[in-house]
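Team,

Forwarding the record for the chain on the shared tracking sheet. I've put the sequence and predicted structure together so nobody has to dig through attachments.
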Amino acid sequence: MVWDTNTFIPASTFLALAGMKKKQRDTVRSMGFGKLLSFKVDGIPSKLGHYVVDMFDTKKMEINLGAVQIKVNKESVHQLLGIPNSGINLFLMARQKKQDSVCEEWKRRNRGKVVSPTEITERIIESNDAME
């Protein structure tokens, strides 16, 4: 796995979450991702990130720390991040024929374009400014 600092920036996620308005935070909570709102990490030291990637065994799906192995599965991710590990399988949902106006606007603005996490963060911050 290659980490490109231009496309994966924990600080941008931190800034987006920290700058959310109450209505946005309530929406995040209602989707089951409320624990993410309490994250106070605005970056990951590169040595730590590289170490974890180097110690990750993709066949066993665990991080090998010598005497201890940390399993990486949906339950451990749920416990660490509070991300729901059950619910609706998005691949089994019927495709909606009518998109809401926000989705339509997103598609129109980003037709065929890859949008980076940094750009998404900037858009969230801009929308926060517009809400004031």
